[in-house]
Amino acid sequence: MGAGHNSYYNPRTNKWTRPKNQWERKRRKNDACYVATAVYGSYDCPEVWTLRRFRDYYLKQNIFGQTFIKLYYAISPIVIRLFGETAWFNSFFKNRLDEMVKYLNKKGYSSEKYEDYH
Fold first, then answer.
1. If exposure means fewest CB atoms within 10 Å of the residue's CB, which of 32, 47, 57, 86 is most exposed?
2. Maximum CA pair distance of the chain?
3. Domain total for the chain?
4. Per-position DSSP letters for the chain, written without gaps between them
């Protein structure tokens, strides 16, 4: 099985998998990657797809990651409203996100088109 809308690569299991239910493919409004979307200019671009996979297949799978996600979604919309269009903010985070995406790609997180997994 390969990449595509109907399957996803889970680096934790090293397998391609199809979502079990329709709800697993739906994007929830509160699952936006605020900082990455602001930095890269789109929710649907390869870098953000990689970060969304990491969120869904690693962070959501443990209590520390879940706590981070809750804090991130509580704080980041405010931060983006205040600083999201400033050059220093975008430059600061783009460099860090680029490095993180490169690392995650090496670890097996794909940058192919992605539908959020829930």
1. 86
2. 43
3. 1
4. ---BTTBEEETTTTEEE--SSGGGGPPPGGG--HHHHHHHS-SSSHHHHHHHHHHHHTGGGSHHHHHHHHHHHHHHHHHHHHHTT-HHHHHHHHHHHHHHHHHHHHTT---S------
**Tally of residues, the chain:** 118
**Position 74 in a domain:** yes
Find the helix or strand (DSSP H, E) in which 95 lies. helix 87-106
Residue 117 lies in a domain: no
Residue 113 lies in a domain: no
pLDDT in tens, 1-49: 344 444 444 555 555 555 443 333 334 444 578 899 989 988 889 999 9
Tracing tokens 């889970």 back to the chain, one arrives at 10
In a domain, 7, yes or no: no
For 47, the domain range is 28-106
